[in-house]
Design brief:
16 helices
Length: 432
């Protein structure tokens, strides 16, 4: 049977069309329908969406790189920094929202593209129509206020574009205002001005989304950028928990800190340094898109845990002494359990701090992130540490109770030696 049997070709066409419908967004420059009156625009005039981050963030970053070529210079990091700076400045936020509205329109209209010049005053977007020799252009305006007078003034200033695009919930108000203008000019015997107002009303179209939908999509983009930033603050909590968690547990249970522990500040510096180094590496992988994700959190937590394990082995006198001591297995299982629980809190805590920071502003974001990360990290770590250690001790008590008894005797002997040394020091001090 021929491979080009009509039924096989039909099946392939159906499958390919199904896959096309299942995609989140179309490839750059792709035309929505072969029977469309539109022709494809240039590939470079379509938004570039790598697919590494939420589509809203990628749309906004791409738009800023196009609109601010001198400031951002095709750098995604600088674009995200501008998003964070505009978060505090309401005037910049309004401007960026307008640029994001263009990007959102292009996401939903695959036959349109950006005009080549970022400083074009009259045209923002363009498309090609079959049989037309010049591009069909549009001017986009997404103002915070629905005041039709402001929109009408903008239309008069930007009068060259074929279409004037506004949010869907502003269309009716603007058209009604223009209708009143037409009637007023006709009643005053101004036919030319009336015709001009009719032409203006014919230009008005909706962007395909309302101001509330635009705000929701814009907030998703901003939240994604903030979440990456907050992930660094939150991981500090886990680093502090790994460093000081076991000592804090001993202090709660016994009222004293273990005397044989390696310098806590050395351990804190090593674990924190490992965290910083791993986060730096994450910024270099996939354009930093792993930051704040569960994969990135797991990688940061694992490297910190491995560093802490090396210090723990050193505290027990080396690998041989550590692996023959039941206390080592208890504490290491506790640390693994505590670290896992602490890492698991990264995502929800980052979500929480992001939501709070959206309301409080970027100045308090580091304080909120560090505080929430430290409290949640240490709290989750302590719960996991104690629970895991207790489980291991119960298992050892069932499997090899003699091993636990010998370890308990050794600990009692160490305590007696410490008490004897303290008594000797006190007596020698008194004799002097």
């Amino acid at each position: 049977m021929s491979l080009f049997h009509p039924y096989i070709l039909l099946l392939l066409l159906v499958l390919s069309s199904s896959f096309a419908r299942a995609r989140t967004y179309f490839p750059i420059g792709e035309v929505n329908s072969s029977e469309s009156i539109f022709l494809p625009v240039k590939t470079q005039d379509r938004p570039f969406l790598p697919g590494l981050r939420p589509v809203e963030e990628e749309l906004l970053v791409d738009a800023l790189k196009r609109k601010c070529p001198r400031l951002i210079r095709d750098c995604s990091v600088k674009a995200r920094e501008k998003i964070l700076r505009s978060w505090l400045n309401s005037n910049q936020t309004a401007q960026i929202k307008g640029q994001f509205a263009e990007a959102l329109f292009l996401k939903n209209n695959h036959n349109w593209g950006y005009v080549s010049s970022p400083n074009a005053s009259q045209h923002d977007l363009y498309t090609w129509i079959k049989g037309r020799k010049t591009p069909f252009t549009a001017q986009s305006k997404a103002l915070g206020s629905p005041n039709p007078r402001i929109y009408a003034a903008e239309m008069n200033a930007d009068h060259r574009s074929n279409l004037f695009l506004v949010p869907d919930d502003h269309v009716d108000g603007l058209k009604e205002y223009l209708r009143r203008e037409i009637k007023d000019r006709e009643s005053r015997g101004l036919p030319e001005e009336s015709i001009q107002a009719r032409k203006q009303m014919a230009r008005v179209r909706g962007l395909g989304f309302t101001t509330s939908q635009l705000k929701a999509s814009y907030n998703k983009a901003v939240e994604s950028v903030i979440r990456e930033r907050q992930a660094g603050y939150v991981s500090v909590g886990a680093a502090l928990a790994m460093t000081f968690g076991p000592d804090l547990r001993d202090w709660i249970y016994t009222g004293s800190l273990p005397s044989r522990a390696t310098s806590r500040w050395e351990r804190a510096g090593a674990v924190t340094g490992t965290r910083a180094l791993t986060r730096y590496v994450l910024t270099r992988i996939s354009d930093g898109s792993l930051q704040g994700t569960w994969k990135g959190n797991a990688l940061v937590g694992t490297t910190m845990l491995l560093t802490d394990v090396l210090f723990e082995i050193q505290d027990y006198g080396g690998f041989k002494q550590a692996f023959t001591n039941p206390d080592y297995y208890c504490i290491m299982t506790g640390k693994i359990g505590g670290s896992t629980l602490a890492i698991a809190t990264f995502a929800p805590v980052a979500e929480f701090t992001t939501a709070v920071s959206i309301e409080t502003g970027p100045l308090l974001a580091p304080i909120i992130g560090l505080t929430a990360g430290t409290v949640s990290g240490i709290g989750a770590y302590m719960v996991g540490l104690v629970a895991s250690e207790d489980c291991v001790r119960l298992c050892l008590d069932k499997v090899n109770p003699d091993l636990l008894h010998r370890a308990e005797k050794n600990r009692i002997a160490d305590v007696k030696d410490d008490i004897s040394k303290q008594i000797s020091n006190i007596e020698s001090g008194c004799s002097l």
